[in-house]
Structure formats: C-alpha cells, structure tokens
C-alpha cells in the first residue's frame, strides 16, 4: 500500500499504527481522513469555482484600483503564469501584470482563461 509522505517534514518513510499514519523522523501523527480534508481545503479556486494551478492564465473580472497609482487594472486583463501562494490576508495569487509589475491578487477577482 502506498502511504502519503509526512505533511510536517515530507518524509517518505511513513507507516501505519492502528488508524493513524506516523512519521518516523519527526513523530508527527495524522489520520488519513485528516490528510484528505487538508488536501481538499488547500485547493485555490477562482471566482467561478474552477481550481487554479501554478502556471495558469487568468482573466481579471472587475476593475481593480492599484494603491499608489492613478491607473486601475481593467476588466478582461489577462495575467499569465500565475503562482499560488499563501500571501498577505486573502491574496493568494502572485503574478506580474503587464504595465503594473509584480503584485498579489485575490482568487475571487479572477477567472481561469
């Protein structure tokens, strides 16, 4: 049987102990149901519920004011090669917007292209 690696230290040598999975390197214990729930929660979805992945292209669905600039990012602007991150607040997309430079966006203001 193929057991998942440890979510704490990424060790591949995990083993089962009763209903738990145990890591021999860091002694972290978790249940398989707990691991599945965390994996499902970790998915980042766009405004329409489509799962986003690193490297995707997304489209902005509403005008966004940019702090410190007079211009705003317009609806329909395409952003290529996004990276999913655990950013500040609920900003979970790291990207470079043409004409504005690098910034973080919320997944709730984009749709997968």
UniProtKB/TrEMBL annotation:
Residues 44-113 form the Protein YjdM C-terminal domain. InterPro entries: YjdM, YjdM_C, YjdM_N. It comes from the Bacteria. Residues 3-31 form the Protein YjdM N-terminal domain. Coiled coil: none annotated. Belongs to the YjdM family. NCBIfam families: phnA. This is Protein PhnA. It comes from Aeromicrobium panaciterrae.
């Amino acid at each position: 049987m193929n057991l998942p690696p440890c979510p704490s230290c990424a060790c591949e040598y995990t083993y089962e102990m009763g209903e738990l999975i145990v890591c021999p390197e860091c002694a972290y214990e978790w249940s398989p149901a707990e691991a599945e729930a965390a994996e499902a929660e970790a998915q980042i979805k766009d405004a329409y519920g489509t799962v986003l992945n690193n490297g995707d292209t997304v489209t902005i669905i509403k005008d966004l004011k940019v702090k410190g600039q007079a211009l705003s990012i317009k609806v329909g602007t395409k952003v290529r090669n996004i990276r999913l991150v655990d950013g500040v607040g609920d900003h979970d997309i790291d990207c470079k917007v043409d004409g504005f430079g690098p910034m973080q966006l919320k997944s709730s203001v984009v749709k997968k292209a």
